[in-house]
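pasting for the record
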Amino acid sequence: MNPYTLTLLRHGDIDHDGRLIGLTDLPLTELGQRQLASSWRRISGLAPVTAIATSPLQRCREFAVRQALCGSLTLRVDPRFAEMDFGDWDGQPASELERASPGWGAALAEGRFCPPGGESFEQFRTRVLAGLADWMTEARGSHRLLVTHGGVITALMAELLGTEFSVARLMTVQRGGFVQLSMLEGHPAYLLRLESPCED
């Protein structure tokens, strides 16, 4: 297999108002739309995108569909690329969660806590990796782009770079930003770039 670039593009700004947002289906704000447009210009300027995959949530999907149509690109919409299912916590203010469950944020960040009614980190990780493996069997070309969420990106970076989830979280991809990895089957991935959105 020839080497290829995998770009992980995080959705842009959403009106979360301090809430924990997982599967809650929020649209992008105007700022979020500008952030993705800016990153897309940067990404496509580095190398033409040859295949796109996306989370089904609208903050990712709408942008991915638009770019796939404009570029006549193959698009895969896969629920396994959705954000973590936070169950009863989804949509709840982070401040209230901290009062009810002190230390929840640190535990979740380290992949050692399962939100009530949600999925465990291992369930989340397993579905994300299965989604990527399936997409890579059908995706073609030298530049493959996944439009997805912060948690998904962190899980993928931890796996592909061979590090702990808590360490991968330190390489934060801001909303509307992206990370690029050089990929070759049978070899570890290596980091090409990590960029924040730059609005014109």
